[in-house]
């Protein structure tokens, strides 16, 4: 039962995948996107779907701290619908409040340089999102 996790940003999408038992999340890649050009990395996401054959995709859903949905949350809702229509796979929205900050703390505690953190932060946030979802199912 594999699951793919996505941290959808304005310029990149962090990607993580679970192990076959659905216990742990591992980061795979950070996909560069260009929303202005309608390039949402769907070809790359399709590659991961074909490779891992997931039963569902978990998309980070960035709510405001008071629980309301802002512009980024709306964009993620639209992206989740796009994934459902394009790939005919279950898509779950997962509250990702503070996931990027948690990923940043982990990378800082590992003494990862600012330059390297910038390259992997979205992938690490995708791991945090997916692991939170997987842990809720245990």
UniProtKB/TrEMBL annotation:
Pfam family of the protein (one): RuvX
YqgF/RNase H-like domain residues: 1-103
Alphabetical list of InterPro entries matching this protein: RNaseH-like_sf, YqgF, YqgF/RNaseH-like_dom, YqgF/RNaseH-like_dom_sf
Function in brief: Could be a nuclease involved in processing of the 5'-end of pre-16S rRNA.
Subcellular locations according to the entry: Cytoplasm
Domain of life: Bacteria
GO molecular function, one term: nuclease activity
Record keywords, A-Z: Cytoplasm, Hydrolase, Nuclease, Ribosome biogenesis
GO cellular component: cytosol
Family under the similarity heading: Belongs to the YqgF HJR family.
Biological process (GO), any one: rRNA 5'-end processing
Record has Cytoplasm as a keyword: yes
Protein name per UniProt: Putative pre-16S rRNA nuclease
SMART domains in the cross-refs: YqgFc
Main location: cytoplasm
E.C. no: 3.1.-.-
């Amino acid at each position: 039962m594999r699951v793919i996790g996505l941290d959808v940003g304005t310029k990149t999408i962090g990607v993580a995948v679970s192990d076959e038992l659905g216990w742990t999340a591992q980061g795979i890649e950070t996909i560069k996107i260009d929303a202005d050009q309608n390039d949402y990395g769907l070809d790359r996401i399709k590659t991961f779907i074909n490779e891992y054959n997931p039963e569902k995709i978990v998309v980070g859903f960035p709510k405001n701290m008071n629980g309301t949905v802002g512009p980024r949350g709306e964009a993620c809702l639209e992206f989740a619908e796009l994934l459902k229509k394009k790939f005919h796979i279950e898509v779950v929205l997962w509250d990702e409040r503070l996931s990027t900050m948690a990923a940043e703390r982990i990378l800082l505690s590992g003494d990862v340089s600012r330059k390297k953190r910038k390259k992997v932060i979205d992938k690490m946030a995708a791991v945090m999102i997916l692991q939170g979802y997987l842990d809720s199912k245990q």
